Amino acid sequence: MANYAIGDLQGCYKEFQALLLQVDFNPSKDHLYLVGDIVARGPDSLACLDYLYTHQDSITVTLGNHDLHLIANYMLDKPANPKDKLTALLGSAKLPAYIAMLKQQPLALWLETEQVFISHAGLNPAWSIEQALQHAQFAESCYQGENARDFFKHMYEQHPGLWSEQLNEFERFRYIVNYFTRMRFLTLDEQLELSYKGSITNATAMMPWFEHPKFTTFKQHIVFGHWAALEGVTNHANIHALDTGCVWGGKLSLMELKNKQYFSANSTDFI
Ligand SMILES: [Mn+2]
């Protein structure tokens, strides 16, 4: 029995299958954690969800921004962006079942045995792992509850800069979702910086979230995706960036969670 994590699939089904073959993934014994962004931009989002659905007892996803966007569009009856290449998925008779499956997935996970925290974008340094899991549970109850449509309606409004107990439930939901699914940079006063789209080298008055001083003495492992431009590099042995840009011509990365051993499949082998 083994546990694995794989970075952002984004419809890269062939590389996904190649990786599972490489590690001899056995759905009847092993468990697979996907760090989110299963769908969008890549060639075969439908095949990825077909596989997840068939093996859902052996797979857990920590939802990414693209997954939440798919659910939101579905629930709010909004059209997809053509560049997301979701036509086949949106035309599938299985779509309602796939949306229901995605909605059951968490935003964050803690694996005690492996000492691994997993979420799509990482861990907000202002939160302990326990607090992060509590925030994730609140947001999950929002998108799994009967008022889910209302929460999705408010998901794209302005980010509430600071956490406060005065935030209403929609603002709290949005704040938590943004940290778990969209975070890359933090300002020097530790607020989420969502507008900057440049490189780390050119970033001024901000830092990648994992460069926060908290993480110099952080002992647990963090597994995340979302940030292909990192090319897997965080300069922290215990902070694992698994989005290695498969959909952009890079590779798909897998980590065996007990021994922290890496495997990859190059997208250029599948053109
Ligand atoms: Mn993402």
Task: Tell me what the structure shows.
Its EC number is 3.6.1.41. This is bis(5'-nucleosyl)-tetraphosphatase (symmetrical). Pfam families: Metallophos (PF00149). GO terms for molecular function: bis(5'-nucleosyl)-tetraphosphatase (symmetrical) activity. It catalyses: P(1),P(4)-bis(5'-adenosyl) tetraphosphate + H2O = 2 ADP + 2 H(+). The protein is built from 8 helices and 12 strands. A 5-stranded mixed beta sheet has the order 3-2-1-11-12, with helices on one face. Strands 4-5-9-10 form a 4-stranded mixed beta sheet, with helices on one face. By secondary structure, it is an alpha/beta fold. It has helices at 13-22, 45-54, 65-76, 87-90, 95-103, 129-144, 148-153, 169-181; strands at 3-6, 31-34, 59-61, 108-111, 116-119, 185-187, 192-193, 206-208, 221-224, 239-241, 251-256, 261-266. Helix 6 (129-144) packs across helix 8. It is 30% helix and 17% strand. The chain has one domain: Metallo-dependent phosphatases (Purple Acid Phosphatase, chain A, domain 2, 4-Layer Sandwich), CATH 3.60.21. It is globular, with a radius of gyration of 18 Å. The model has no long low-confidence stretch (mean pLDDT 97). The structure holds manganese (II) ion (MN).
Topology as a string of helices (H) and strands (E): EHEHEHHHEEHHHEEEEEEE
Enter the CATH topology name. Purple Acid Phosphatase, chain A, domain 2
DSSP summary, beta strand count: 12
**3D shape:** globular
Q: What's the alpha carbon Rg, rounded to whole Å?
A: 18 Å
Indicate the multimeric state.
Answer: single chain
The CATH homologous superfamily is termed: Metallo-dependent phosphatases
The overall average pLDDT, rounded, is 97
CATH class: Alpha Beta
Q: What structural class results from the helix and strand content?
A: alpha/beta
User: Count of helices?
Assistant: 8
Q: What's the CATH architecture name?
A: 4-Layer Sandwich
